[in-house]
Write a structure and sequence with these properties.
This protein has 145 residues and is mainly α. 78% of the residues lie in helices and 0% in strands. The longest helix has 32 residues.
Length: 145
C-alpha cells in the first residue's frame, strides 16, 4: 500500500485512541483499554513497516545506521522511513497518554487538568509527559482511596 495512504490510516486510527482518552471519564476502564488496544495495533503496524523498510534498504545496499546523524537522516529521507518513524511516535505517544489517563484517575487529577497534557502528548510527546508529571504533583491531585 502507498505510504501516504498508510500515513492517513495510521493517523485516523491513532485519533480514535486519543478520542477514547478524552472521553475516558464516561467509561474509564473500557476506554483506556480501547486506547491501549489501538496502541498495540499501531505497534504491530510499526513492526511490520520496520521489517519491510529493513528489507527494502537491505536490497538497495543501504542498510540502516542509527549510530550517526547521517545514517538516521538517510533512513528518514525515504517516505517509508518517515512512515515507520511516524507510526513509532503515534504508538508510543498514545501509550503514554493511556498511562497518564489511568494514573490521573488513581491520583485524583481532574480530567479537565489532564486534557491539556493529553493534547501536548499527542502533539509533542515528551513535553506532554513532563506537563502531566508536573500537574500530578500540584494540589490539583487528590489521591483516591
Amino acid at each position: 500500500m502507498d505510504p501516504a495512504r498508510l500515513f492517513e490510516i495510521a493517523n485516523l486510527v491513532a485519533l480514535a485512541g486519543w478520542l477514547m482518552l478524552a472521553l475516558a471519564p464516561l467509561r474509564r476502564t473500557l476506554l483506556v483499554n480501547g486506547a491501549r488496544l489501538v496502541g498495540v495495533l499501531l505497534a504491530l503496524t510499526y513492526t511490520v513497516l520496520l521489517g519491510a523498510a529493513v528489507l527494502t534498504l537491505g536490497e538497495a545496499g543501504e542498510g540502516l545506521d542509527f549510530s550517526t546523524l547521517e545514517g538516521v537522516t538517510r533512513a528518514f529521507a525515504r517516505p517509508e522511513g518517515v512512515l515507520v518513524g511516524w507510526v513509532h511516535y503515534l504508538a508510543f505517544d498514545l501509550w503514554v497518554g493511556a498511562w497518564a489517563t489511568e494514573d490521573a484517575a488513581k491520583r485524583g487529577v481532574p480530567h479537565w487538568a489532564l486534557l491539556p497534557c493529553l493534547l501536548f502528548t499527542l502533539l509533542a510527546g515528551p513535553f506532554g509527559l513532563l506537563l502531566y508529571l508536573a500537574i500530578r504533583r500540584t494540589p490539583l491531585a487528590r489521591p483516591t482511596a
